[in-house]
Structures are given as structure tokens and as C-alpha cells.
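User: Predict the complex with zinc ion.
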Amino acid sequence: MEILGIRIPTVIHDIDSVRCEGCHEAISGQPMRVSILDVVATEAPPSWATASPINPGPHQFHPDAAHVRAWMRRAGYLFCRKSAVREIMRPVPILIGDTAWGLCDGAHRDDHEFVPA
Ligand SMILES: [Zn+2]
Ligand SMILES: [Zn+2]
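Assistant: Here is the predicted structure with zinc ion placed in the model:
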């Protein structure tokens, strides 16, 4: 491309090199993709959504739940121990001191039990 007569080299993104958001190492083979549901789609009031720092993803990891949990831990998310790491996680606002977010797969009907990821 050219802007004001100056040639701008096109930035080439290496799409083959996908990095795990858990350990930051390259992923060879099929990455595990985890998306976080749009908060607006849950019962959470809109004020939560606007304050939400949640990046819905999809986030990509090595196909190992430990790498996903490492990312959750670093991002400050709690993890519901009644759930499992799945492709779609639901964010749940937790009101303990500062607002925190817990992630749950939403597969159980009783109360969440959030623990450090
Ligand atoms: Zn990894
Ligand atoms: Zn739960």
C-alpha cells in the first residue's frame, strides 16, 4: 500500500503460529478454543456488562484444561469447581469486595462453588 507517496510495507501476520494464552508457547496441531458467553445474554443487569472487562474470545490454548486454568488465574477469574473447562464458559459476577468474575460451564443447577482457578 502507499500513503502520501511513501511505501508502507504490508505487515504479514503469521497465521500459522497460534500461541496458547495459558503458557504463551506455540500450539502445534488443533488448539482448544474457549469462548466466554456475552454477559448481556445472561441475567446479569446491563450495568455489569458495561463494567465487564471480559474478553469473550475465542481464546486459544493447548488442549489441556491446566493451560486454560493458568490463564483464568492470571486474568483474575475464579473457577466453579462444579464445572469443567469447556468450549463455552459462562461469566458469573461475584460480589466479594471488588467485583470479580467466576467462570462456570453452566452444566449444574445448584449453587456455584467458586475457587481460585
Ligand atoms: Zn499452553
Ligand atoms: Zn457453577
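Residues 86 and 105 are 6 Å apart (CA to CA).
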